[in-house]
Each structure stands twice: as structure tokens, then as C-alpha cells.
Amino acid sequence: MATTESPVEKIKAHSDYLRGTIVASLADAASGGLADDDTQLSKFHGFYQQDDRDVRADRARRKLEPAYSFMIRVRVPGGIATPEQWRTLTEIAKSHANHSLRLTTRQAVQLHGVIKRDLKATIRGINDSLLDTIAACGDVNRNVMCSPLAELSGVHERAFEVAAAISEHLTPRTRAYHEIWLDGDKVAGGADQEPIYGSTYLPRKFKIAVAIPPQNDVDIFAQDLGFIAIERRGELSGFNVSVGGGLGMSHGEPDTYPRAAEVIGYCAADRAVEVAEQVVALQRDYGDRSNRKHARLKYTIDDRGIDWFKRELAARLGFRLEEARPFRFLRRGDSIGWVRDHRGAWNLTLFVPQGRVIDSDEHRLMSGLAEISKAHCGDLRLTPNQNLIVAGIPDRARIGTLLDEFGIAELQAVSPMRQLALACVALPTCPLAMAEAERYLPELGAKIDELLAKSGLADEPISLRVSGCPNGCSRPYLAEIALVGKAPGRYNLFLGGSADGRRLNSLVEENIDEARALARLDRLFSEFANRRREAETFGDYAQRSVVESS
Ligand code: SRM
Ligand code: SF4
């Protein structure tokens, strides 16, 4: 049956490799926004048009254009930023954005509130610091995640190199980005080449991560394509390859669903880039270009079958993946605190509440980190869980003094549950948010902390994730407890994800308010404390006592 391509496919096809009319849109002083088609293309350049939802209704009443501003996502492959780059980001956040930096669940940084006339200077400033924004968003491969502390072992170092090579290999080649933002030379129409993507890029976003067991800090089973490092005699021998993870869904549309990736085999380390290219090419050729809600790799695999996928991949590669090797994940999230790497240097993973780097009256996190970046000669690393690592510290005492001085040390004193908790940005910037998430997590977390303490579970590392809508940006469907926004103040409650991030949780209550969610959790915590089996996690308990028994 012939299918119609989605409107975004037409926009890409007619964009001349992502140029569209972005230059004209930027020059149009009559509006704070971009032309409609350019709002799609802008994502490939790393920014989204948004408007302040806190004032949307009021502005509409006053017949004013929405308060447009832009979110810029800075791509940081593997999450590593030099102290100079960190300072540049801080300065740009103060001069052109909303005086905050937002660390994301994909090891990137977002700036919010940039107005149209500052877009070019902002993107240029980011590029001047040798970071960029191309392919941070859009229908391409996004930031490749990897466990950020490369120096923890030789395996980490090598795995990080592979992640960087995949990222580089899959970066779009169009010159449009350089032309528009960096005043690069113009390429005559049609002279651009995208050897991997072609002129219409991928049907949808594509996500890759590299995980190093036993830490599943990248949430490998949420990724379209995952590489799970396999060690042999202290060296990286290769990777188990996982495919078809993805979490987005829509309320009330059963054809959309979160899916945990499955492991399909093993490849040697030096073949990982080839495997990544061919999986991407396969999705480019077979992904659904008519329905964007059905366009991720997970649906291509479910529609055609995993055996078809493996055969097709082998045919493209010219070899079959070997049988997957045994591996085991024991933890997720980041290990907050100090750790010494295999070179003997100290590294400090800082807990950043909700990933928001900002100064408040009590904690001057943004200023403190800027000071640390002046005193520090190592680098700063973003984690896949909205936290930050100060890496390669020769002088622990100096950093410790700065942490105290700026109130950052105090911020670290949170429960294991809060250390693991994630919330997506949601309101007021996200256009898709149905309920609060980032702004709600501190209050919700404190209430759940109280309930845990009441049942003697204060030290239990239970994963809690909150998303403002079902798209799942805080990876809620892999949490032991998740609240997914349905409407203002109302959430769907999911329970039963596994602590290693392999099993999806299940919907147990729909459209409930906070009181009902807390009452349910209170009962469950108390039962769990009294009836748990030896070493049983909360997720496993909820799975057997709630999900499987209903
Ligand atoms: Fe996301 C869309 C924020 C990680 C699934 N995500 C959005 C947008 C851009 C809203 C939009 O399309 O206009 C959000 C911007 C909000 C804002 O104001 O900043 C947004 N996503 C985020 C971030 C910032 C959440 C955070 O608080 O950290 C994360 C940025 C990642 C990055 O640095 O690249 C973020 N998003 C994720 C993840 C987690 C991951 O990648 O590991 C997921 C689930 C995994 C997945 O992709 O399946 C995720 N975001 C989505 C989806 C659903 C996609 C789908 O297949 O259905 C959307 C909606 C869409 O694409 O249409 C979305
Ligand atoms: Fe926005 Fe929904 Fe993603 Fe939260 S989960 S940032 S509300 S798209």
C-alpha cells in the first residue's frame, strides 16, 4: 500500500541540506519566532523554538505573539568539557540565556531563553569554544553517550575512544551549519553530500550509547543502538550490540509504546563504527517516513521481526555478529562523591539537583562551578544522569574549600533515592509538557524521603523518575517508580522497573493526584520493608507484588 510521507519529510527534502529559509527567518524583525518549516530544520542545527508557557495564556488574551525564545542544546560527545569551555558556557548563559545551564539526561547541556537576535552570537560563541550544536537534535544520530570517567580503567579509556569515533563518523556533513552560523563559504546548491544520511536524513531521531558493565549509567536499554563493553584480561575485547530501545509513547495510543533494547550479538571493538553505520543505514532505508509516531528503530524491528533485522544487518556488514558474551549490570545512575582513577588522580561526581546549574540564595552552584573551573586543571564531565564530574583533581583541598564556600557541599547531602532521581525539564519551556517535572521534583522527593524514612528505608537506592508527559525524557519507564504527566497536577504511576535498567516498569494507576500516589507508595514501602526477600530491590518487589499479581 502506498503511504504518504509526513510533512517533515517534505521539509527536509526541500531544505537544500538543512538550509531552508533560516537566514531569512533570522533577519525577519517582525516576529520573535522562525517561519514554520524552519522550526523543524532548526533542530538539526541544535535549537528549538519555544515560548514561555507561564505567560502564554495571558499574552494570548492580550493578542500578543507568544513570548518566543530558543533552547539551544550543546553537543558534548562523551560529556567532556574543558574548564575554559565550561566558563564560556557559563558566560553565555548569563549574557544570552536565562542565567542557568541545564545538564541533560544525554550528557549534553541546554541553554534556555535565548532570543532570536542573540541566536547567531550564541551559537558562534559555543563554536568558538570548540563545542558545537549540530546534530544535538533532529532526525540524525544524537550525542553518543559513554560512561564519563574514561580513566577509571583501560577498558573505559578504549570504550570512550570508540564512542568518540562513532560520534564523529555519524555527524552530518552538510556545510549549511557553517554557512549560517559561522559565516563559512557558501556551497553551490546541490554540492553538499551526506554519504550516510542522504538528503532526507533519518526518519526520526537516533540514539546510541556505550556502556561499561557493571555500571549501566547510560541506560543502555533505552537506546536505539547500544554497545556493551566486554572485557578480556583487563582489555576491551569488543561489544555486545543491543538494538531497538526507545521510550516515547502517547497517552491512549497503544500503537506507541516504550521498548527495552535487546542484545543481538557481539562484535570486535574495531568493528563498532561499521556496525553503527550499518544499523543507522538500515533504519534510514526501512524506518517509517509516513508516521513520525511510528518512525523509531524499535517499530522497524517490531514490524519486521528481529530475525529479519539480524539477517539484513549481516548482509550489509558482510559478516554475522558473533554470539553475545555474558555480562552483568549491577547499578545505574552516577556514583556521587570521590573516586580515584587508575592513573591515581581524584575525580569528584557532584550531585546537581534536577540538572539545573543555577545560583540561588542558599547555593551558588553556577558561580561555584565557574570558580572551580578557574582553579581546576583537569576537565568537567557531564554524566548521563544530569550530574557533573570534576575530573583529574590534583588538589582535593582547594576544590573542597570552594565547594564549602559556594554551598555546593551542602547540596550533596541527599538520600540515595534523591541522588538517583531524574526529572525532565517540562514546564515552563517544554511545549509538550502536560504537568510539572523539574520544578516539582524537589517537593515530591522530600515527601517520598519522609515516607521511606518512616519505613526504615532511608538508605534504599530506589530509582524515581518524573516526566511532564509520556515522551519519557527522564527515562521514566525504566525506573522502579515513575510519575508521568497527564494533566496539571495529575500523573500516571508506573512501578516495577529493575535496578539494573533492563526491565520496563508497568502502568499501575492512571491520572492520579499527588495524595493518591503518595498513599500508594506509603503502603508499598511499608509492605516492602516487612516482606522483602533477601537482597530484593524495591523494583523487583513491586514487580512481583503489584504488577504480576494484578
Ligand atoms: Fe527528550 C522531545 C528534553 C532526553 C524522548 N525532549 C523533547 C523536547 C525537545 C520537546 C520538543 O520536542 O519540543 C524537550 C525540550 C524541553 C526543554 O524545554 O528543554 C526534551 N529530552 C529532553 C531533555 C533535556 C530532558 C532532561 O531533562 O534532561 C533530554 C535532552 C537529551 C539530550 O541532551 O540530547 C531529553 N528525550 C530524552 C530521552 C532520554 C535519552 O535520550 O536517553 C528520551 C527517551 C529515549 C527515547 O528517545 O526514546 C527522550 N524527547 C523524547 C521524545 C519521544 C521520542 C519518541 O520516540 O517518541 C520527544 C518528543 C519527540 O521527539 O517528538 C522528546
Ligand atoms: Fe517535555 Fe515531555 Fe520530554 Fe518532559 S518528557 S521534557 S514534558 S517532551
Give an overview in words.
With 550 residues, the protein is α+β, with helices and mostly antiparallel strands. It contains 18 helices and 20 strands. The protein has a five-stranded antiparallel sheet with strand order 1-2-5-4-13. Helix 7 (154-169) packs parallel to helix 9 and helix 9 crosses helix 11. The longest helix is centred in the last third of the chain and has 18 residues, at 514-531. The protein starts with 6 loop residues before the first helix and ends with a helix. The model has no long low-confidence stretch (mean pLDDT 95). The structure holds siroheme and iron/sulfur cluster (SF4). Residues 424-426, 430, 432-433, 437, 467-469, 471-473 line the site of iron/sulfur cluster. The site of iron/sulfur cluster has 13 residues, from loops.
- Share of helix among residues? 25-40%
- Bound ligands, named by name, code or SMILES: siroheme, iron/sulfur cluster
Number of H/I helices: 18
The overall pLDDT average reads 95
Distance between the termini: 40 Å
Strand sequence of the main sheet, in spatial order? Answer: 1-2-5-4-13
Topology of helices and strands:
Layout: H1 7-13, H2 22-27, H3 36-44, E1 47-51, H4 56-61, E2 68-74, E3 80-81, H5 83-96, E4 101-103, E5 109-114, H6 119-128, E6 145-146, H7 154-169, H8 176-182, E7 208-211, E8 225-232, E9 235-243, E10 262-268, H9 272-286, H10 297-304, H11 306-317, E11 337-340, E12 346-350, E13 356-357, H12 365-375, E14 379-382, E15 388-393, H13 396-405, H14 408-411, H15 416-420, E16 422-423, H16 441-454, E17 464-467, E18 481-487, E19 490-495, E20 506-512, H17 514-531, H18 538-547
Parallel strand pairs: 6-7, 7-8, 16-17, 17-18
Antiparallel strand pairs: 1-2, 2-5, 3-14, 4-5, 4-13, 8-9, 9-10, 11-12, 12-15, 14-15, 18-19, 19-20
Helix pairs in contact: 5-6, 5-12, 7-9, 9-11, 12-13, 16-17
Bound molecules: siroheme and iron/sulfur cluster.
